[in-house]
Amino acid sequence: MIEYIIDEDYESVRVDRFLRKHLKNINLSEIYKMLRKGKIKVNNKKISQDYRLVLGDIIFIFLPETFKEQNEEKFIEISQIRKEKLKQMIVFENDNLFVINKPLGDVVHKGSGHDISLLEEFRSYYSNNNINFVNRIDKLTSGLVIGAKNIKTAREVAKEIQAGNIVKKYYILVNGKIEKDNFILENYLKKDEERVIVSDIEKEGYKKSITYFKKIKEYDKYTLLEAELKTGRTHQLRAQLNHLGNNIVGDTKYGKNEKEDIMYLFSYYLKIDLYNLEIKLEIPVFFNKNNI
């Protein structure tokens, strides 16, 4: 039997799309047949081909483990210099878990023009194809990302994220002034093809999204915020702040006329009570407004 744990990268993706990507040597009609006969289950339950995956879902595929081994990608070659850079990213690790401080520009998962990502690099670094990143941040976002070294830990962390038991905080620099010292943004988000759509009222297909904000410092044209996610939707901070009218500096997707090659969004704080783990990073030097 083969198991896959669903991370944020595949949240809301149709199960048949996921299976086509991971079972490349099995044609689609055979995949549909396996779904109908219960040879592929999610959380030990039969599902239809249009089922949309949820963070923390476990896909069970009743095929020999050797099938997975035959279809797994080989470890990529990484130079000694790159190995040292990967090592420097690690801010915490034990036998089951590791946390990295992702630099600007690196991608967590491949796609969108990137054939190699940190996932492939760290699988090679650890010589472990069970490595998975349970949360993700965008290419131009930097900061803390959680990595699991085995399926059991990936499952545990995903469930903790789903239950709202993991605390994640960000430093954000936004355009414009914000008067309130503390405020909450609560609205509804829906993933579109290119970006996330925000609604102030509940609608079908939209997910409730909540973020707590605290003002740290005010500049002439900018405001430095701390944000604590209570939900973890795709592009939640970027979409919510743009909807507010204070888009993130350097956000070329949601911002207007942004030309920065740096997005001022940094994941600096992580707390996982399940593992008695707390990590807090200093604000990066590029947040100094003299650099803009």
What labels describe this entry?
Pseudouridine synthase; 3 domains; 292 residues; 4-stranded antiparallel β-sheet; Structural Genomics Hypothetical 15.5 Kd Protein In mrcA-pckA Intergenic Region, Chain A; PsdUridine_synth_RluA-like_CS; 11-stranded mixed β-sheet; 7 helices; globular
Report what the structure shows.
The protein is α+β, with helices and mostly antiparallel strands and 292 residues long. The protein has helices at 15-22, 28-36, 65-71, 80-89, 118-126, 151-162, 236-244; strands at 2-5, 40-42, 45-46, 58-61, 90-93, 97-102, 132-133, 142-148, 166-175, 182-191, 196-199, 207-218, 222-229, 265-272, 277-280. It is globular and about 60 Å long. The relative contact order is 0.13. The model has no long low-confidence stretch (mean pLDDT 88).
